[in-house]
Structures are given as C-alpha cells and as structure tokens.
Specification:
The protein is an all-beta fold. The chain contains no helices and 17 strands.
Length: 196
C-alpha cells in the first residue's frame, strides 16, 4: 500500500496539524516480487526516532512495480513532484475484479459519491479518490471499460464493472487521488512496504 499525509493550517505556535491515511491492499501475496524503475538524480536521507544516525543515501527511482500483488495482478507505482503518487493495477485475463480489496486506516468515514468517486473523510476535510479510468488493449486500440468502486459496511473498497468486458484480455485499472481538503501542503508522501 502507501501512505498519504495531509497537512493543515499552522497554529499560533507555527506548528501545522496533520492527518495520516494508510492505504492497505488486503490479502496480498506474501511472495510478491518488487522491481525498481529507472534511477533518478539525488538521494534521500531519513532520520527516525529508532535510527538516530539516519538511513542515508537512499536512491530515488521513477517508480516501482510489484509482480503478483495478488495472483494475476501486478501493480505499478509512479510519481513525481508535480503530479504526486499514482498507481496502475494490471489484471491478467480472467482475473476477477473482486480479488482486489483495499482498506484505509485513518479514515473517519468512507462513502461513494453520486458521481462514483470515493469520499474519504478526515479531520482536515475530505479526500476524493476519483472513479478509476480502466481500459483494455484490443487489436492495438485502447478500449475504455466502465469500472467503479464499492464500499462495504466495514469500509473495504473493491472494484466493480458497470458493464460486461472482454475477460479474455488483460484489464488496466488507473485510479488517482486528486483532491485534498486541507492546505497547499497536502500530498502523497511515499510508498512504504512492510514484511508482508
């Protein structure tokens, strides 16, 4: 998954309030293979409470891919300072949309809006996860597929096809988090993986 940090306005002491959302894919393959994209200029340094000397000279990449996040589903993360973090999910032919399940820790409420977006309520406002753009490449032509979100009573987010599509071909799901309800400092802060 990934983490999104929202920054609010500064208070009288000059400190900004914040809100953290952690996006998790549920039931993923524990043996997924990670591959970094093309290296980009610069390094990052992290200074954390549990590592006072820092984690230094961490290389930057223009993306990362995870093969078999679920069986038959790959994910490609990419981003930059202008457009932020985005990801594409690629489902092999015949893989059901329902295999992909996501939860969002830190959300106060999650609901589907009338226009098919996911509205994620936080202490700083509402984050909108726009309805995904989905497509298949059929005879070298990009054919759009109508796919939306479904949110369960427990807050689990899944994808659902509005119409039938060619399940003998791979399907690309291109979601995008596009609007934040706080200040201009809002943004996706990175991709974080754990042992699973």
């Amino acid at each position: 998954g990934f983490t999104q940090v929202l920054m609010g306005s500064t208070n009288q002491k000059g400190l900004a309030g914040g809100h953290r959302l952690d996006y998790y894919f549920i039931g993923v393959n524990e043996n997924s293979a990670f591959t970094e994209g093309e290296a980009v200029n610069g390094y990052l340094n992290f200074y954390l409470p549990h590592c006072l000397s820092g984690i230094l000279n961490v290389p930057n990449y223009n993306g990362i891919s995870v093969e078999d996040l679920y069986e038959g589903v790959d994910i490609f993360y990419k981003g930059n300072r202008v457009n932020g973090l985005k990801y594409d999910l690629v489902l092999d032919a015949g893989v059901p949309l329902s295999i992909i399940q996501m939860s969002i820790a830190g959300a106060e409420n999650i609901e589907i809006t009338q226009d098919g977006n996911v509205a994620i309520k936080t202490s700083l406002g509402v984050v909108i996860k726009r309805a995904p753009f989905c497509y298949q490449m059929i005879n070298n032509v990009q054919v759009e597929v109508a796919v939306g979100y479904r949110v369960s009573k427990t807050g689990t987010i899944t994808f659902v096809a509005a119409d039938a599509y060619d399940q003998s071909m791979p399907l690309v799901i291109d979601p995008w988090v596009t609007y934040y309800g706080g200040s201009l400092l809002d943004g996706g802060k990175g991709i974080v993986t754990d042992g699973s």
